[in-house]
Structure formats: structure tokens, C-alpha cells
Specification:
There is one protein chain. This protein folds into two domains: 1-111, Elongation Factor Tu (Ef-tu), domain 3 (Beta Barrel); 122-251, Nucleotide-binding domain of ferredoxin-NADP reductase (FNR) module (Rossmann fold), CATH 3.40.50. 21% of the residues lie in helices and 27% in strands. It has seven helices and twelve strands. The chain is globular, with a radius of gyration of 19 Å. It is an alpha/beta fold and 284 residues long. β1 and β2 form a beta hairpin.
């Protein structure tokens, strides 16, 4: 991946800054976890919602919405975000340059991609890339609240090294949380995946096996989908084809119905594709 040089000058301070970057952990060269802490009272949010974070560069606010991976129960310690660096001069090339302690702008929350209260059905979480973030927030919150639900977490990536939160989910499974973690890689023959012995194929291609293996029936299962826009549409159609009614299949959509879905190739190449959906296509 060729990263363009970002020469924009990031404003060191601004009255718009109401938070600051307090921690960063790199997963790969282009995937990292960021913690942003509010300088005042943290915003209240529900697991599954997203916040918009940004900085001023060349005097202009550059920002981007991200699903929160942390639980709202730990907001005073900062909001956690799982982010992919996109090779275009938008927000992420600025975020990767920020030092710890730098001011940021946080607004929100927004979004209706929420867990239903007291829903005792089995939960099937389907995600690709950084789309796993809202499911981490949901799982952490249920664990902290002492209200775990039987959960199947299916996470699709191109390379095993991109399996964010893998260690945490494996540990939860080993410790007895009623969670089954099912990662899958879509490029098993790539040398970067040498040694991978888990499932292979795109995440939507393993759904039949998951449903059969775990007895996931439409009347006892609720499905949540988040990630690459193309995957969302395919997974939704697949589950509905298995008899899951539309209200039982919930999805995080970032583009208006009736609009053409942006291509990740177009975004990565810098061709026109606007809005949150465009960057989501490239990131997830």
C-alpha cells in the first residue's frame, strides 16, 4: 500500500477540541486501536452507536464517524475505536500522525444499531474488518452487566493478522462466556496466511455451516451485521433466504437506500465516492 504524503498542518489547539487522544495500540501497519477521552463529562451512548472524531488541519475540521468498541460503562477512561488507515488524504492520515495528548473534537452519539433489551435469543454477530467494533462494545457491556447472551461472533478478514480483538474473544470463549468465536480468512493461499488452520472464505460463505452447526433457527436467533457494504447486503439476503424475517436481521448501513454503493477500489484509488459509505467501503 502506497501512502500519500500528508503535509496538512494539524492545529495544536482549538476551542473546538473537547477531548484528547490518550492511548494508541497498533495491530498492524494499517490497523490500530485508539482511545479518545472527553475533557469534560463523557457523552452517554448505547453499545452499537458511533461517535464522530476529528481534528483541525489547515484551519478546517476534518472528522469521521466510528463505531465505539468500548463499553459505555468505561467512558470516563476514554472511548475506544478500531481504525484502518486508508491511503487517501482524509481523516485517517491525520489520525496516524497525532501524538498522545493531542486535542480532538468528539460529537455524537448517533445510530440505531442497538441491542434489544432483555432479548434472550441467540445472537449471531456477522462482521468484516473493523466492523467488529460495535460487537465488542455489546459483548463487553453484557459481560460487565452480568447479562451474557449466547453469542456467535463471525469475523471475516483477508489476512489472519487483521483479526482484531482475536485474543480477547478467544479468552472470553475459554473462560466460559457463552460465546463462540468464528474467524475466517478469504485469502488462504496467500503466503501471509501461512499456518492458518481455521475457516476460509468470505464470511457470508460460511453462514450455512454456522447455522447448521449451532442450530440457529429464525424463531430463536437474532442477526446483527456490520462491515463492508457489499458483505452486508449479501449476508442479509442469505439469512433471509434461510427464513429469517427482516426484523430479525439488523444491519449497520452507512448509505441511503436507492443510492449506488461505493466501491472500495474506487475509494482506495482516490476516485469520486463521497460520504461515510465511501470510506467504510475502503476500511472494512
Amino acid at each position: 500500500m502506497v501512502m500519500p504524503e500528508d503535509t496538512r498542518v494539524i492545529d495544536a489547539s482549538s476551542e473546538l477540541y473537547n477531548a484528547e487522544l490518550v492511548r494508541r495500540v497498533d495491530e498492524t501497519d494499517d490497523l490500530a486501536y485508539f482511545w479518545v477521552r472527553a475533557r469534560g463529562e463523557p457523552a452517554s451512548f448505547e453499545p452499537g452507536q458511533y461517535l464522530t472524531i476529528g481534528v483541525l488541519a489547515d484551519g478546517r475540521l476534518v472528522q469521521r464517524p466510528y463505531s465505539v468498541a468500548s463499553s459505555p460503562r468505561t467512558s470516563r477512561d476514554g472511548y475506544e475505536f478500531y481504525v484502518r488507515l486508508v491511503p487517501i488524504l482524509r481523516f485517517t492520515t491525520l489520525l496516524w500522525r497525532l501524538p498522545i495528548g493531542h486535542g480532538m473534537r468528539v460529537t455524537g452519539p448517533k445510530g440505531r444499531f442497538l441491542l434489544e433489551s432483555d432479548d434472550g435469543r441467540t445472537h449471531l454477530f456477522i462482521s468484516t474488518g473493523t466492523g467488529i467494533a460495535p460487537f465488542i462494545s455489546m459483548t463487553r457491556t453484557l459481560l460487565m452487566d452480568g447479562t451474557p447472551r449466547r453469542t456467535i461472533v463471525a469475523h471475516g478478514v483477508s489476512y489472519a493478522r487483521e483479526l482484531g480483538y482475536r485474543r480477547e474473544l478467544e479468552r472470553l470463549q475459554q473462560d466460559g462466556y457463552p460465546l463462540t468465536y468464528v474467524p475466517t480468512v478469504s485469502r488462504p493461499s496467500d503466503p501471509a496466511n501461512a499456518g492458518w488452520t481455521g475457516r476460509t472464505g468470505r464470511v457470508e460463505s460460511i453462514l450455512d455451516d454456522l447455522c447448521d452447526e449451532h442450530g440457529l433457527e429464525p424463531d430463536r436467533t437474532v442477526v446483527y451485521i456490520c462491515g463492508n457494504p457489499e458483505m452486508i447486503l449479501k449476508a442479509e439476503a442469505h439469512m433471509q433466504g434461510r427464513g429469517f424475517p427482516e426484523p430479525h436481521v439488523k444491519k449497520e448501513l452507512y448509505w441511503p437506500k436507492g443510492k449506488a454503493m461505493p466501491s472500495a477500489v474506487d475509494v482506495a484509488a482516490g476516485r469520486s465516492a463521497g460520504g461515510r459509505a465511501a470510506q467504510v467501503a475502503a476500511e472494512r
